[in-house]
Task: structure prediction
Amino acid sequence: MKAYQRETAYREYCAEVSLPTSEDVCDRSIILPLYAQMTQVEIDFMIQRLKACFA
Result:
């Protein structure tokens, strides 16, 4: 997840925009894979990887 002003498409238009709250939230967030076709095996794999990160 990126703050919109950091996205490539907007960078040149928003070079001077500062959104410290959204930037902070984005810096502390992760995007997990999530889509309708995910199999149970893929879901279980992601759960195990997340558990390993926080163990």
Observations:
- The chain has one domain: 4-53.
- The chain has a mean pLDDT of 88.
